[in-house]
Amino acid sequence: MSALLEVNAVTQQFGGVTALAQVNLTVNRGTITGLIGPNGAGKTTLFNVICGVRPPTSGSVRFDGVEVNNAGVHERGAMGISRTFQRLELFWTLTVYENVLVAAELASHPNPAEIARQNLELLGIDHLADATAGELSTGSARLLEVARALATSPKLLLLDEPASGLDERESEQLGELLKQLQERGITVLVVEHDMTLVMGVCDEVYVLDLGVNIASGKPEHVRTHPDVIRAYLGAQIGES
Amino acid sequence: MQQFFAYTIIGLTIGAIYALASSGLVLTYVTSGVFNIAHGAIGMISAFVYWQIRFDWGIPTPIALLLVLGVFCPLLGIVIERFVLRGLGAANEVTRLTVTVALMAGLIGAASWIWPPDARSAFRGFYEGNVITVLDVNIGMNKIIALISAVAVAVLLRYLLFNTRLGVQMRAVVDDRDLAELNGTRPNNIARASWAMGSVLAGYAGILLAAEVQLNVIPLTLLVINAYAAAILGRLKSLLYTFVGAMTLGLLEAYLLWTSGTSWFPKTFFGFNTSGIRQAAPTIFLFICLLALPQAKLRAGMVRVVQRSREPKWSTSLLGSAVLVVGVVALTSLLTRANTIFLVQCLVFALAVLSLVPLTGYSGLVSLAPLTFAGLGAVFMAKLPGDGSVMTLIMTVVIVALIGAVVALPALRLEGIYLALATGAFALLVSTLVFNQQKVFPNGSLDVPKLRLLGIDFQQPRAKAIMFAVVFALVSLTLVSVRRSRLGRQMVAMKDSPLAGAMLGMNLLKVKTVAFALSAAIASLAGALDAGKVPPDRYGLDSSLPILLLAVVGGISSIGGAFFGGVMLGTNSVMATAIPSLANIAKITPGFIGMTLGRNLNGVSAQIGDGFRPVIEHRQSVVVAIIGPAGFWLLATFNVITNWQFFGLLFMWTLGTIGLLPAILGNDTNLRNTLLPLSVSGLIIGFISTTINLPTGGRMLCLIVAATFVVQLAQKKMAQELTTASTTAESPDLAGLTTPFTARELQEVDDAIGVVP
Mutation test of the interface with chain A: which of B309, B503, B556, B733, choosing the one with the most A Cβ atoms within 10 A? Predict the structure, then answer.
């Protein structure tokens, strides 16, 4: 199993605040990796570093065997990193279909319209194709984010809290979808608060707390890790 | 040495005035999030009011100053905040910027209306004539007061922001408006206070500045571009850097003034007069400051809006283009030569407005320089060899498009207001360094040759009008195909969320460059094809502003909006020429129309468009809608009705009948029986009102517009009563917020969560 994404000793400081301290993270090809931690742990900051939205204060990011520290956001996008956003970033004034179409076109698919349709179907929102994105409910908007991210046929898919705003049933469906994506060979890194989802689908889990990587490993290992339990105020993960 | 000292004092004085103005700008920006382009105009109008009170009415200085700074300025700030800006909370950046541009245009118009240039006497500074001599240099009291005030204001502002309750609240609002509100601060009150203070600072700076440069509307308004430069140096946040920037700029200007008077400063450079460089120094400084800003961070997208960037349909677009061209051909057969010239003007404006559609409408980039590119188009058309051949036109368009792309390149690192300011600075630079050169506009006018094509004389108004209609139609269709293409979707996607676009692999720089080049090319057509003698000020920044305003008012993301905006602008200038008594009103109209944007964010054409949409989707209605005007035209051509009656009918038909057609032709007899008499009576009113013979065409036009307006109003009223108001489904997220919970809903909630009352 080879590494698709390697984050090496990344530190991110904002003024006097250290959002990430010497974080290491490896995502192997074909796996689903979870990234969990309390609010303010630095999960989204780490996503931003991986995507190139902010250069890290120190440390490096390697993707697909290439160091990408100097690559811009769109260059990394073109290399095969795709993501969704915790605070939704849809193209609000375009239709649902156009949102996905733009992504497929940017990935230079020979038949972008077909790809767009397929991804809307995959996420079960094809009936909304002609609605304006701004009119969607939060749940559907989140699914659209995933559909759009998938339309670039990424190697690595970063999901930032995809299940927030989804109900229990939708959340289960999302878990199944992630498994499906894995079967197709897409590697996934997911930030999520829904522990049932994370523990159910992830091959590997990393735990961040206050910018420090306090634990990593198989879900069952992480679940019982004392530092993790402390970070979550003693609550037994998965039982809350 | 003595001279050095003297110029240093001048520099510090100017710097102090800039500091006063720019600190007011920063204050309003940080507390309300609106960058006030009209800040300079507020200073300008305050200087005029002060002049009125102090010198025209002869009221003593302290009272005059108190009236202006203690009453007029705060009131102006409060009125602006309350009636112009509030309600813009949900608006996007383009709209917010445009509203302050409108404010600026409105204030400029008002000042030149109330105080015509010949009615102004000298503006004297405080205690003029009294000097203090330091190192053999006489320093006027005005300068000393300016210096002291700047320092005092700096100290006071610092104290206010860090040591008073109001200041702490202001900073809280800056940090997190919602959180501050939850903790009991009232952001609206804070914004009002800061706008009042900002206006006072602008007003004071304006009065001090007027003493140095005298009363002049445009220079006083634009000199505050220097305040922008200083504020930008402070990144619109730091008051300290803002002061440093203001002082640097003041000194720079003073030393340039000094050296440009000495013999070693070259008077010409490759035949270009260098005096423009000194004038342009602040603008260049602003430009450099803007370019020195760090690369804009990828911004998260705009807040979610329920608005749609509708992809234009080919059928509608082709129909619209055909109607435009056929309409202009038919119309010009009836119009007099003079009125045809007005029509040409409308179409030129419409084309200039159209240039903003791909740039601002699709891509969300604000440009304050649309006419600058039109002006460059005119210059190249006149100067390139070929004397107006098609080849010359093509070369002109290509060159201006390239200039657009090249100018855009450095500016592309910028976003939002910074980008808008950079384009404004570019417009000023081109005006001073190119358009105002004897070499470019000999004797103050440029002779743009007419297009040589198929042996048609395009200098003739009718041929020119038809040509512009055809060009507008062709450019529109090009834009439709752009919008429907990958590029067009990427432009809109970039506007909605640059961050998500980049993440999907979109090269934002490329998309922005193309948008700028396309926009510049379209604008250049407007300038290059408008043959004749052209004065240099036609393409200045102050002429560009109304273009942007009416584009946004019309609805900038649609071609129909551009056309509507152009026609409004054209009509406005026609009215000003036709009816001199309306000329002053015409000066302020674009500004006031723009200020209403806070109430109507999608533009007028979107509203009108919504009214027409059912018509376009109803085949029978489309046919009838076209047959009507064709019939009127035949009647007019064979002199059965007069031309004015034709226009009356046409207006009524367009605005009062077409919208009702689907209902009239529909199956609901009840509706038909009410609406048919309604539209017929409208047409009759239009016909009769134009039978009244008024002496001038402009007055006739006014009458027609007024009659149409009245009929429309009546129709709307009646239609409202007819159709039961459709209740729009409310988002469940808003339940309990927009309307209170009902007792039943509360009961259901209690049951659901198991609360036993």
Answer: B503
Pick the CATH number of A1-71+188-240 from 3.40.50.150, 3.40.50.300, 3.40.630.30, 3.40.50.720: 3.40.50.300
CB contact under 8 A, B499 and A101: no
Distance from CA of A204 to the nearest CA of B (A): 25
Which of B517, B547, B524 has the alpha carbon at shortest distance from B101? B547
Give residue B371's domain range.
314-412+445-604
Q: Which residue of A has its CA nearest to B491?
A: A102
Q: Quote the CA–CA distance of B677 and B424 in Å, as a whole number.
A: 52
Q: Within 10 Å of residue A88's Cβ, how many Cβ atoms? A: 21
B637 shares a domain with B524? no
- Residue A63 CB partners (closer than 8 Å, separation 6+): A4, A5, A6, A76, A79, A80, A81, A156
Inter-axis angle of helices B370-383 and B541-554, nearest 10:
120
Is residue B41 predicted with pLDDT exceeding 50? yes
**Same domain membership, residue B77 and residue B100:** yes
Q: How far apart are CA B429 and CA B277, in angstroms?
A: 9
How many CB pairs lie under 8 A apart between chains A and B? 107
Predicted TM-score of the model (pTM): 0.78
Cβ–Cβ gap B301/A77 under 8 Å: no
Using the Cβ of B500 and the Cβ atoms of chain A, whether some distance falls under 8 Å is answered with yes
The CATH number of residue B89's host domain is: 1.10.3470
d(Cα B54, Cα B50) in Å, to the nearest integer? 6
pLDDT tens for B647-664 read 777 777 777 777 777 777
Would you state the pLDDT for residue B25? 84
Q: Taking CB atoms and an 8 Å limit, are A93 and B492 in contact across chains?
A: yes
Which tens digit of pLDDT belongs to each residue from B441-479? 777 777 777 777 777 776 788 888 888 889 999 999 999
**What torsion do the CA atoms of B395, B397, B398, B403 make, to the nearest 10 degrees?**
120
- So where are chain A's domains? 1-71+188-240
User: Are B632 and B587 within one domain?
Assistant: no
**Is B307 in the A-facing interface, judged by CB distances under 8 Å?**
yes
| Over residues A224-239, mean pLDDT | 65
Name chain B contacts of A98, Cβ cutoff 8 Å.
311, 489, 492
